[in-house]
Amino acid sequence: MTTATAEAVIGSAELKARFSRSERQRKISALLLVAPLFLFICITFLAPVAEMLFRSVDNSFVHGALAQTREALADWDANGEELPPEEAFAALIADAKRGAKEKTMTRVGRLINYKMSGASSVFRKTARAIRKLPDNPADPRAALVKIHKRWGETDIWRGIKFFTAQQYGGGYYMDAADFAFEPESNSYERKPENERIYLRLFWRTLLLSALITFLAFLMGYPTAFFISSLPPRHANWLLILVLLPFWTSLLVRTTSWIVLLYSEGVVNNTLVALGIADDGDRPELIHNAAGTIIAMTHILLPFMILPIYSVMKTIPPAYMRAARSMGANGWVAFWRVYFPLTVPGVGAGCILVFILSIGYYITPELVGGAEGTFISNRIAYHVRASGNWGLASALGFMLLALVLALYWFYDKIVGIDKMKLG
What we know:
The chain is mainly alpha-helical. The protein folds into three domains: 1-47; 62-166, no CATH class; 198-418, MetI-like (MetI-like fold). It is 70% helix and 2% strand. It has helices at residues 3-57, 60-65, 67-72, 86-102, 105-113, 119-129, 140-147, 154-164, 171-176, 198-228, 232-243, 250-261, 266-273, 289-312, 318-325, 330-358, 362-367, 375-386, 389-413, and strands spanning 179-182, 187-190. The chain has a two-stranded antiparallel sheet with strand order 1-2. A hairpin with a 4-residue loop joins strand 1 and strand 2. Helix 5 (105-113) runs antiparallel to helix 6. The two termini are 59 Å apart.
């Protein structure tokens, strides 16, 4: 190898090393630029989702609070009719004494009560009276039965063994699927038809969200087409009207619909004045599914108009003129040429409106009544009213999984790469 060749090889290697360092520095710079956004997403989205998933399967509190009772019940046949052995009663007294000192027994009873009605009062009364018992009573069974008669029944013991068996489990998901624990069979069984609410709420949420999306498309598409066909000066004024609802509080807009749709409201008074409805038989437009559909369609309509309009503005008018010059009439030219070009905007608007409507809470709560509420309203109830965060987390995770499944289905059928916002 000549000296010139060796120098060329060395220079090439040095150039590659410099290029590698430059590329590495570029990637590090890009990573540092994205890091704040990634950290923000982790804190505000991934961490709450992980916490929600954990709460939906976590049973560690009851599992640990009744540790001695759980071990004493390990060999007891819960399917039989006999009460647990004396060791189980003594173990429960020890756990209850420790729980009364640490003030955890009331919470244990509340958590078990979510799955077995009546357990909360049993544990609450036991926690108050257990301090007066000696540490090792001569007859622990009689002592507990004297505190509360249900300690002499097998169903409460079956529930304790069932709910303390695992530190993590899917009990809340069974509740969310309208199953309930039955002490007689010592297992989960389907609730009676008149007590099944969660799957019905999921179905109602999907159905009403799809209907709201369809109505928003029916009104949003011609509106976007009309705005896109105007000169820029006039189109800007109409776009301001479309964006105007965003400058008003959601609560104010929803409350306005209550005023409009009430039995003595503007809409009903107009229908009566026009002779469309009878004054003594006014249509019910509030506190039902109709109120939810009307109010949410109005609120979410801008989310349908804007993506479609932004795509329509990119379509050259020459395409329609070319279609007409080749013999197509106005309808054929629109359906065969113009509409397919707007499908990416339609897809973006539909999926945006549908996903937003699935998780809506305020509007269905105020105008929906018993027939127009969504699953999100039930999740909020368990978070702020009943305190059953485990069930709320299970319902929330099921809703998230449903949205992701629909997103995946949309990607397979339409293709998420075809969705455009302009």
